[in-house]
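Can't paste images in this forum, so I'm doing it all in text. The chain is below; anyone willing to post the predicted structure tokens underneath?
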Amino acid sequence: MLKILGSRKFWFALITLIVVVLTTFLPSFDINTEEATGFIFLAVTLMIGVAVDPTPGVAKWGALVRDYKFWAAVVGFVFLALKGFGIMLIFSADQVTQVLVIIGGYIASVALKDNIRYLRAGMRK
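Text version of the structure:
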């Protein structure tokens, strides 16, 4: 049980679940289905990115603040939160979804790049 509390994937999934539930119980947090889908896509991409990134030391929370994937996800989550609370009204739902998908693509590409670099380093030894 305590091992799961140290898992970044668990915490990302829990935060995603809280945001999805928050949309039901907090009427001022207004995101539509497309934006919610973009948010879930971003969260799933981050969890997959963390799962495939075998860089040594990444399992530690201190390494989290140095992780590009984490900060890209934070930008996406803040972008969606601002839109949800009506602060960024200039973006349509389609544009919000597109931004979240682009950020998710960036997270996936960084995870794969790090994984490929790690595999190549292992083959040289």
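The chain has one domain: 2-124. The longest helix spans residues 93-124.
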